[in-house]
UniProtKB/TrEMBL annotation:
Record Pfam families: HxlR (PF01638)
Chain ranges of the HTH hxlR-type domain: 9-107
Annotated GO MF terms: DNA binding
SUPFAM superfamilies in the record: Winged helix' DNA-binding domain (SSF46785)
InterPro entries from the UniProt entry: HTH_HxlR, WH-like_DNA-bd_sf, WH_DNA-bd_sf
Official protein name in the record: Transcriptional regulator, HxlR family
Organism annotation: hydrothermal vent metagenome
Keywords attached to this entry: DNA-binding, Transcription, Transcription regulation
Amino acid sequence: MTDCKRSRCPVACTLDLLGDKWTLLVVRDLLFDRHTFKALQTSPERIPSNILADRLKRLEREGILQRKLYQDRPPRYTYHLTPKGRSLGPVLQAMLAWGSTHVPGTLNKEDIEGLLKK
């Protein structure tokens, strides 16, 4: 589990865990039913494979996702949000609503859903 680095403030501690450039995008894609490494890697933002592997390990270690082996040779996994991970859904919905309203040039919710379900 992540230790709070800056303070014991819940916002600061949450940012220590989720506040980098990629982590919430991985959670977003898992919420949109992208469950394999390849599917996650081909999201619109094109996360580099080494960073994706690191974020998946961190999210698993923190209990936000679990991986399931679906092929032995070579080993391949699917990734699924735990209840703790799914509880981030409303946070991402709020970010989507805020960004759609306040950040010029962003897509609306329906466009995002269509893009991610391809």
